[in-house]
Amino acid sequence: MSDESPAFLEDLSPERFMAEALKEARRAREAEEVPVGAVIVDVESGRVVARAHNQRELLKDPTAHAEILAITQAADYYKSWRLTDCVLYVTLEPCLMCAGAIVQARIPEVVYGAVDPKAGAHCSVFEVLANSSNNHFPRVQVWVMADERAELLRGVYRERRGGGGIRGESGSTNGSTG
After folding, report:
1. 77-129 residue pLDDT tens
2. 67 annotated active-site
3. Given 30, 67, 127, 159, which residue is catalytic?
4. 178: which of 33, 61, 108, 149 is 20 to 30 A away, CA to CA?
């Protein structure tokens, strides 16, 4: 028996999956959406089972955040609302709505790339994901590829507002004001 892992299991690093989420964020930016991307990975196989980016403008739907769309895809993939065998990678700290959906879906782990100091619901504004009184609270990893995520947002806000950064680096970026 070989000690070698199959090729698809070789790189299960958070950076690899965050890079996939960043690809989704770039797709959002290309579509003139707020650039947030998300992927959901099956823990056992290491496969991406859902991927999405913000689509509020396209769908004219205030709930069309990357996390919500990815959770819906993953629920369809698993044929269950309980997503207990996966990890959510998202480029920005989830907002209140998305954090609630993460808790309700029983996602056991969340990795996000940058804090959202105006609408974040892990530790920035609200503490939904960190609240031990919830019936479920996921493990959370923060700051994977935060520099790349911040630069992507700065570019969008420079384009939209004709200069400056992310509203003094503290503007909401998950679509709350997008």
Report:
1. 999 999 999 999 999 999 999 999 999 999 999 999 988 989 999 988 888 99
2. yes
3. 67
4. 108
